[in-house]
Specification:
Domain Histidine kinase: 260-486
Keywords: ATP-binding, Cell membrane, Kinase, Membrane, Nucleotide-binding, Phosphoprotein, Transferase, Transmembrane, Transmembrane helix, Two-component regulatory system
Shape: rod-shaped
Subcellular location: Cell membrane
Structural class: alpha+beta
Distance between the termini: 85 Å
Number of strands: 12
Largest sheet: 5 strands, antiparallel
Radius of gyration: 57 Å
Membrane topology: Multi-pass membrane protein
Number of domains: 3
GO molecular function: ATP binding; phosphorelay sensor kinase activity
């Protein structure tokens, strides 16, 4: 059952119950007041006639001989009928209109007995096929101790009964028509009100059946519940699209990384396999023979073993980089302690001279590091500096690479600058992304693009930051800021 149908049924059911209660209350209210007016009129007529009867009894010497003709009353022009029953004589005296119709109002012994305890009561009965409302009133002796007669005042109520029936059927028909019209209108309004939800469903189906995450639900109505729901779903679709785009970008980066890593691993493996095949061939030539290897063969063997060792080191560095990123993804927490920066940087400067480079390695002013401590991990801080220095050497085929230090507020800054190939302005926001290489399209250098990603992770773990200044063909400068503890000035 659809929501639209349920809303219509609920609305129609509530309306039907309301109409039923209203009709019942209205019917019984009108019926009560209509008959109450009739009862009051009949009772008043009976009371007036009873007074005249009592006066006649006072003048009578024979118990109850009463003339019911009223002095100024024409009973032919009224609907009220009067009848007096003499209990002692068991005789009836009737008003002129009853005599005209030759009708006697019904009176039972049960009704006479009820008047022994009551002053009067109403009875609805049929006379000559018509509905009559009859008021029975007792006539008592002067001392009130004995019931001597019964006065009956009757009025036909057939027209009122027909009116009540007509009113009842009118209310029923009107309620049915109202419910039908209201249900139709409610169905139309529910359909119109729930139209945006249908658009939500259509949009969701289109997104489910395709890849169009840019589709949004059009809504121009008021900001009611439907409007807020539509806005919420549109916002959710925007977030889903953003997340999907990020996942798609990560997937493309992952595929690029797999391609680069496969290429980087395949090259040293090919070199190692070729050299191993060469050594195996030379071994077969000299094995089982008394002839010693020639100097050329020895030289070739040494070169092959050097190639194998170099490529193994290259593979080891690549695996270490992957392991470092895996640890970063796993949320590995560094073990930190106060690290004195000047000895650490001096050690890095000394070891950096041994790295392969063609640019001139220059050491600037490091006095800002004196007595400065950084709360961090010594090994990772060394790796951080080596990453930037190796990158500077890699991208500076000629010129200089310089390292120096400076202070700012509660931070110590380490600057590594070069005069190498630099980068385009568009590359700067992406250089710390994993697997990204600014020179990928130029093929100037080799590498996987993992070093700066690892460096950025180390900086973040030490609550630091990095500033990048670069210009194509003029060089790059990386300024690393780390929170530090400085010595107290004297």
């Amino acid at each position: 059952m659809s929501l639209r149908l349920r809303l219509t049924l609920w609305y129609s059911g509530i309306l039907a119950l309301t109409m039923l209660l209203f009709g019942v209350v209205l019917y019984f209210f009108l019926n009560y007041f209509l008959y109450d007016q009739i009862r009051q009129d009949v009772k008043r007529e009976a009371s007036n006639s009873s007074l005249r009867v009592q006066k006649s009894i006072a003048l009578s010497q024979k118990g109850l001989v009463v003339d019911l003709e009223l002095e100024s009353r024409d009973f032919y022009s009224t609907n009220t009928f009067l009848q007096l029953y003499n209990i002692a004589l068991k005789s009836f005296n009737r008003s002129a209109n009853l005599q005209y119709y030759d009708v006697t109002l019904p009176l039972t012994a049960e009704n006479i007995n009820k008047l022994q305890d009551q002053s009067g009561f109403f009875v609805k009965t049929k006379v000559l096929g018509q509905d009559f409302l009859i008021y029975h009133q007792g006539i008592r002796s002067d001392d009130g101790a004995r019931l001597i007669g019964v006065l009956q005042a009757a009025v036909p109520v057939g027209s009122y009964e027909r009116t009540a029936v007509t009113l009842r059927y009118t209310l029923i028909i009107w309620a049915i028509l109202t419910i039908i019209v209201a249900a139709s209108l409610g169905w139309f309004l529910a359909r119109k009100a729930l139209k945006p939800i249908e658009r939500v469903i259509d949009a969701a189906n289109q997104i489910d059946s395709g890849d169009d995450l840019e589709k949004r639900i059009a809504y121009e109505g008021p900001q009611d519940e439907i409007g807020r729901l539509t806005n919420t779903i549109n916002g959710m679709l925007s977030r889903i699209q953003k997340g999907y785009d990020e996942l798609d970008e990560a997937y493309r980066a992952q595929r690029r990384f797999v391609s680069d890593a496969s290429h980087e691993l395949r090259t040293p493996l090919t070199t190692i396999r070729g050299n191993v095949d060469l050594l195996e061939k030379m071994w077969k030539q000299t094995s089982g023979s008394t002839m010693l290897a020639t100097p050329d063969q020895v030289q070739i063997s040494l070169e092959a073993m050097q190639d194998i060792a170099g490529e193994a080191q290259r593979m080891s560095r690549l695996v270490n980089d992957l392991l470092a990123l895996a640890r970063a993804d796993a949320g590995v927490t560094m073990e930190k302690q106060p690290v004195e920066m000047l000895p650490l940087v001096q050690e890095v400067v000394r070891r950096a001279q041994l790295l392969e480079h063609r640019a001139e390695w220059c050491v600037g002013d490091l006095t800002a590091l004196e007595d400065v401590y950084v709360h961090g991990n010594r090994d990772y801080l060394q790796q951080l500096l080596f990453i930037f220095i190796e990158n500077a050497f890699k991208y500076t085929p000629e010129g200089t690479v310089t390292i120096d230090a400076r202070r700012r507020d509660s931070f110590i800054g380490l600057r590594i600058s070069d005069t190498g190939i630099g980068m385009d302005r568009e590359d700067i926001p992406h250089i710390f992304d994993r697997f990204y290489r600014a020179d990928l399209s130029r093929g100037v250098t080799t590498g996987t693009g993992l070093g700066l990603s690892i460096a950025k992770w180390i900086i973040d773990e030490h609550d630091g930051s990095v500033e990048v200044t670069t210009r194509k063909d003029e060089g790059s400068t990386f300024l690393i800021w780390l929170p530090a503890n400085f010595p107290l000035s004297v």
